[in-house]
Amino acid sequence: MSILSKEEAEFSSAVEVAVIGAGACGLCAGIAAKQSGAETLILERDPSALGTTAMSTGLIPAAGTSFQAKAGITDTPELFTEDVCAKTGYQTNADIALALARESANTVEWLASELQVPLSLVDSFLYPGHSIKRMHGTPNRTGAELMGSLCNAAEKIGVDILTDATVIGLFAEPSGEVHGLRCQRPDGKHEDLACSAIILACCGFAGNPDMVREYMPEIAEGEFFGHRGNQGDAVAWGRALGAEVGDMSAYQGHGGLAKGYGIPILWPVIVEGGIQVNQKGQRFSNESRGYSEQAVDVITQPGAIAWTFYDDPRHQLMLEFDDYRDAIAAGAIQYGTTLQDVCQKTGLPLSEMEKTLEEIASLVGTDKQDAFGRQFKGKALLNAPYYAVKVTGALFHTQGGLCVDAVGRVLRADGSALQGLYAGGGAARGISGPDASGYLAGNGLLTATTFGRLAGINAAIDINER
Ligand SMILES: Cc1cc2nc3c(=O)[nH]c(=O)nc-3n(C[C@H](O)[C@H](O)[C@H](O)COP(=O)(O)OP(=O)(O)OC[C@H]3O[C@@H](n4cnc5c(N)ncnc54)[C@H](O)[C@@H]3O)c2cc1C
Description:
The protein is α/β, with parallel strands linked by helices. It is built from 15 helices and 23 strands.
């Protein structure tokens, strides 16, 4: 991933704004730039526009939306910001978090009304760390549906996506000012594109094992369940141009990837009172803190696995999610009419499981905490029939990256912006603090959609003003 001098370029075409990467960030950026009057092209290395986004649950958090108002929920950007900052132990940039929270409702309304993304409020449960229901998702709660709607919107608005186009270099001045990019096509040929602004929407470096080992060694042995195309290109280019990076050890992990099936068993099952035990039938953590930090807790158990264990009411709740229905169809979920039955099917030791469930029963309905600091107050007892699924810990995507301002301009260490260079989504430093525990559910798509939209608008404005 190189920085090339303008003299080396053989520009065969030109646009005003070039967007690298066609996930949620790239699509939002490209559409917003075009709506703001700039000729725009999105370049994507894969044969189709999918990215991490299409693998995701597609839930986008926002504060103060019409969807929340209809459900009688009062939310504010300030409350949202407090939740974001608290999850990081106040180790993120609160100004950036507030700026994103303030724009989050505008993004969701724009997606729903202008881009026709069929969003609704997820009102069946609260994700850990969110003090109010503010997740918005597509009918089957999938990122694939989100990407489908964004691609349709791009086509209608007239934003082209050039697929099979891996960007391998940026043409830029040593000062950072960008002039264009070079992409490589599947036949090995290069094409040079001139542009006045570049939006880096090519996510982070979770698909680059060397970088993962360097910055987040604790998850390097976990399963990678993200997008292979995320190789850290944005960080490499930004650094070469003098940009600052931040929170490089931050990431979204997940402690519930169905082992051998590659299907995430989402956290509502835990939040609503389900548990995780190791192969000995023993709990080992406060699972309800969050799914991201749970990844390392799971991979440090014997065999690097755990069992997510729950009962019928929590099973019913999970049927809302396409991923869960896929897990059932794939045979990942074990079912037992009695504890003995489910223990036989899973190999979990009956006597230890009896002890584990007795302990939880003694906590339900009380203010008491278990040894890991978890309370079960307000949760229904776990009762037969039971369900269990073998899971492992996984890395989904990275959250550290290029430092940006509130509209996605890439910054140097002194706070000055590189002319014409923007970043958003996984390419930019997120709002998750320095490690996995700071990831509040939704931080990924909040920064992808809102930074994407703002970077697109501002890139178009900047070009007009130059
Ligand atoms: C299983 C799972 C569930 C998740 N659920 C949620 C959720 O419900 N809510 C939430 O907020 N977040 C969720 N996330 C995280 C979320 O998916 C990501 O934060 C978000 O999709 C990142 O968007 P992006 O546009 O930055 O990157 P991506 O969607 O990864 O798009 C980047 C694109 O850039 C392309 N690219 C990379 N390098 C180049 C190059 N050199 N040239 C051209 N193209 C390039 C890649 O091929 C890719 O298509 C989830 C993640 C996973 C894995």
